[in-house]
């Protein structure tokens, strides 16, 4: 005789359904972008223990339809094998064991941010996110690397950092095969292939693949040079430029030619020097066609043509 399914109409009061077991809680997933950059916002989806997608072993018992998407009600289904209730999100279809967990998940879709930082006033959807955000004010970094001792505010950031030591790169570019430690880095890399430059300069209109590159570029227009030499006081727009300049004072020449004994304080100078050995001349005069190993050779060239 086929099993009969009864319609359930929330016999359990909502306040009893709000409680959730600590077993449902996991560390959140971090967002974007530099290798060790610590963002404040985390995706609380990971701690909701959703059972995503449709469940072939569960049958929908009731569902209400609303005209306003923002007020779409939830629906409940029961697993025919275990008899366990599952609450389904009407926006994305994810399933949850507790209706209280679903209600907290729905706040993300509605843009509700009931938890506010007492220091800066920033609002977040989840209390867990507020606790993590507060670490930016307190400086607390409870998760430390067992290999190098570096500390992090979030467990997921430590997990990502460990790939520096293990050299694990699970995110691969489908075009060129290059691998990355983080999904966000692969997304940024893909713009090289697509030509997408979503960050444009408001002054000259030049486009950039990364927001950080636009920020650096803006210093050309503002004249800002935040990196100064402690020896002579000269300023630079990039720290790399400062490091290269300091070698003039220290005499350090870490870039050595593999063909001869010459060494250079800058890698670009080594590349230009190597062309003397390989006889590669990549720069040519547009008037007479004479070729040079360096672009500066073209500009200094007195064309006889």
Automatic annotation (TrEMBL):
Intracellular or extracellular location(s): Nucleus
Record-linked InterPro entries: Znf_C2H2-type, Znf_C2H2_sf, Znf_C2H2_type
One biological process term in Gene Ontology: regulation of transcription by RNA polymerase II
Biased composition (Polar residues): 40-60
Assigned keywords, A-Z: DNA-binding, Metal-binding, Nucleus, Repeat, Transcription, Transcription regulation, Zinc, Zinc-finger
Domain C2H2-type: 87-114, 115-142, 143-170, 171-198, 199-226, 227-254, 255-282, 283-305
A GO molecular function held by the record: DNA binding
Entry GO terms, CC: nucleus
Main location: nucleus
UniProt xrefs under SMART domains: ZnF_C2H2
Region spans: Disordered: 1-77
Family from the record: Belongs to the krueppel C2H2-type zinc-finger protein family.
Stated name of the protein: C2H2-type domain-containing protein
């Amino acid at each position: 005789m086929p099993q009969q399914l009864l319609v359930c109409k929330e016999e359990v009061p909502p306040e009893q359904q709000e409680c959730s077991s600590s077993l449902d809680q996991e560390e959140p997933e971090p967002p974007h972008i530099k290798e060790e950059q610590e963002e404040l916002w985390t995706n609380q989806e990971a701690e909701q223990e959703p059972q995503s997608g449709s469940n072939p072993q569960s049958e929908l018992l009731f569902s209400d339809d609303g005209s306003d998407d923002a007020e779409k009600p939830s629906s409940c289904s029961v697993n025919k094998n275990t008899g366990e209730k599952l609450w389904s999100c009407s926006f994305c279809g994810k399933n949850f064991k507790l209706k209280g967990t679903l209600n907290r998940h729905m706040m993300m879709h509605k843009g509700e941010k009931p938890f506010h930082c007492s220091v800066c006033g920033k609002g977040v959807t989840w209390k867990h996110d507020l606790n993590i955000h507060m670490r930016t004010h307190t400086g607390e970094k409870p998760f430390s690397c067992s290999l190098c001792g570096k500390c992090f505010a979030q467990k997921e950031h430590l997990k990502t950092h460990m790939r520096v030591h293990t050299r694990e790169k699970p995110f691969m570019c489908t075009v060129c095969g290059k691998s990355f430690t983080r999904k966000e880095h692969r997304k940024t890399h893909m713009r090289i292939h697509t030509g997408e430059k979503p960050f444009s300069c408001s002054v000259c209109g030049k486009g950039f693949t990364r927001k950080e590159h636009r920020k650096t570029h803006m210093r050309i227009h503002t004249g800002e040079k935040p990196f100064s030499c402690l020896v002579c006081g000269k300023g630079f727009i990039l720290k790399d430029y400062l490091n290269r300049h300091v070698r003039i004072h220290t005499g350090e020449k870490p870039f050595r030619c593999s063909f001869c004994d010459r060494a250079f304080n800058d890698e670009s100078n080594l590349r230009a020097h190597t062309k003397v050995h390989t006889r590669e001349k990549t720069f040519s005069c547009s008037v007479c066609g004479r070729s040079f190993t360096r672009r500066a050779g073209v500009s200094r060239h007195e064309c006889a043509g």
